[in-house]
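Sample pair:
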Amino acid sequence: MLDKSHTIREVQIPAPKFSTAEFKLVGTAPYMQARFAKKAADMMREKMVSGSQAKKGKKRDARDFKDDFEQAMHVSREGWCGIPASGFRLALISACRLVGFKMTLAKLTLFVEADGYDRVDGTPLIKIIGKPQHDERLVRNATGVADIRARPRWDEWSATLRIRFDDDQFSLADVSNLLTRVGMQVGIGEGRPDSKDSAGLGFGLFRIAQ
């Protein structure tokens, strides 16, 4: 028997409408990368497997800064260097705070299409055009201990970014303006203005080429 106290409501869900826009980006500040090295991950795993015996009598190897530099780069299966696609997507979502758009909605409506994948862990990558420089600088670990980090830094760089977006939420002009804010205010990579750990170094900024 039908309960007459509940009215039947017709639900209409429109089909998703997505568009893809391509943007040529030109760096206006250096881009620096700090990929979590496979060697460090392997050492961490070995320590966990060894348990309480991990440190007993273990010799500490000499630091190879050239290897640290190479390990810190994202390299695709085809051999080119890349920027994690997630870095651009997170930056776009973060920039929504500047214009009052809900970040939770942005997560469902903005996507970055990858050019390839990391040869070690499969991270989706955007190809970066430029030559990396060996960068060494003093940093402090989470424990406060001083350390020297060797990382790749691109002083001159460019990339082509393809953004897929929901037409019901954003127009092409919206996406372009949001990406412009990312390039001027948020940044990508290490030392970016929107770094969660500090105010950054002003790295990772860019402009959209006309």
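The chain is about 25% helix and 25% strand.
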